[in-house]
Amino acid sequence: MKKFYKIIVYFLMVFTFISCEDFLEEDPVDRYVANKFYNNAEDADAAVTAVYQVLFLIYERNIMSLNDLPTDTEKNGLGMPNQYLQNLEYLRFTSENQFVRQMWQNNYDGIARANTAILNIPEIDMDEDLKNRLLGESRFLRGLFYFNLVRFFGDVPLVLKIESPEDAMIPRTDKEEVYNQIIEDLQFAENNLPVTASQSGRVTKGAAKTLLGKVFLEKGEYQSSVDKLAEIIEGGENYGYGLHENFRDNWREETENGKESILTVEFMDPPGVSNWAPQLNAPKYSIHEGAGVPGINNANEADIPTVDLYNQYSEEDGRKDGTFKLDYVSPTDGQTYTATIPLFGKYWEEGETIMNRIGTNYHILRYADALLMFAEALNEIGQTPKALDYLNLVRERAFNGPEGNYSALSQEELKEAILEERKLEFAYEGHRWFDLVRAGKLVETMEAHGMREAELAESNKVEISDNIREAHNLYPIPQRELDLNSELTQNPGY
Fold it and tell me: What gap in Å lies between CA 209 and CA 214, rounded to an integer?
């Protein structure tokens, strides 16, 4: 059982229920009111905890809905009749899509909480090192939230403080200015965060460096990306990062916060915030004539892998068994039940009987991501042989040795190989749409994917090929936000 603590934070408005594993204080104060808030270090820590809480909303499922479902890695199963999700899969979503709206709202909720902490914590009389650490955490999280927004939506309003409702009713800010603020926030975090987190789930100096490397990569500033990622990879002994020998160890309770973990969302058993993924991946319709596995409850079989994805793993690739699951042992009768289709198994917790109470963590950043980003940036600046070495580190873990290694690839071939490797390494981890857009491959990939899926399994998937267009390199600005803020404009094509 994971540790669980809770805190309820109030400041000018009531923050939602806060929970986090291993880093909230015991014996919390039940309530903070506006005229007594921000008086001491405990108040500051509670305010930053409220910022962390938003990670649960973004990463419990929403990030996969927008990053995997509209790509070639995920599709809706029989347990998902939601029309908004169907529209994401078939690339017919509009500005009214509720999951697109939630992504906008949740990230801006996190930004609002971070802004409040950043503006008020400096006024507290408290230990300066702790103050700067908490400010570093807040600015890291604000940078992460804006990084999500600018990748999903392009130009977005850059709101750094709100003293009146009108402060939020501003036009979209050029994405370069937003990126400048992201970099400034992450550099502040890098300079003020510890190398080792005092409690699980807190951001660290290594997380700031890794996210900075990702930001520079996204912007096409490849040398800056190489320089920053090198600090944790080539100087890695200072940070202790590495690859687990076993790919599955990233999702086992005893090892999920191990050496490959750079930043995770700390899900937990009830009464904490549980990870939704196992419930949405769990077997139902594909087992026992649709009855599911006896003794496994609350299974939806809603988020399932595409045939296209499953077929791209070789049998020698250890990530195949680490990513998918076919066999399930019933806790009721002890028999093994085999699904008729492969299902996602990354977040599966053996022995659990209630699928909506699983505490498997979600990785926002893990070391394999840093290695593949490093390889991508190195290749872009012409250091292809060195880049190949780092790609092969990930391959060697997958194939339990050098048998699966690439050799003698051209720069363009290596670029394609890295994109493919990211697909296999990070399936159902919320990366694929970002990767395809960054590579300029979204349209051609989805045209081909729709046709392959139509040939392999479902003839109606040709609609995906018909619907994909350049406009899908950004999501639409939610219509509700356009209605509330007349200063906003819509992205082209919506």
Answer: 9
Q: Whole-model pTM above 0.85?
A: yes
Stretches in the chain below the pLDDT threshold 50 = 1-35
Q: Determine contact, residues 74/306, Cβ cutoff 8 Å.
A: yes
pLDDT given for residue 356 in this prediction = 87
Rounded-to-integer distance, Cα 478 and Cα 94, Å: 8
Tokens 């926030």, residue located: 185
Report the chain's terminal Cα–Cα distance, integer Å: 47
**What is the C-alpha to C-alpha distance for residues 344 and 333, in angstroms, rounded to an integer?**
23
Residue 334, Cβ density class (10 Å: 0-12 exposed, 13-18 middle, ≥19 buried): exposed
Say what angle helices 222-233 and 367-380 make with each other, to 10 degrees: 140
Q: In this predicted structure, what is the pLDDT of residue 25? A: 35
Closest by CA to 329, choosing from 295, 369, 367, 372, is: 295
Q: What is the DSSP string of 314-371?
A: -TT-THHHHHEEEEEE-TTT--EEEEEEEEE-TT--TT-SBTTSB---EEEEEHHHHH
> What pLDDT, on the 0 to 100 scale, is given for residue 53?
96
**Token digits of residue 472:** 């899908």
Measure the CA angle with vertex 207, ends 158 and 118; round to 5°: 40
Nearest of 368, 390, 366 to residue 378 by alpha carbon: 390
What is the predicted pLDDT for the residue at 204? 97
Over the stretch 400-420, which tens digit does the pLDDT of each residue have? 999 999 999 999 999 999 999
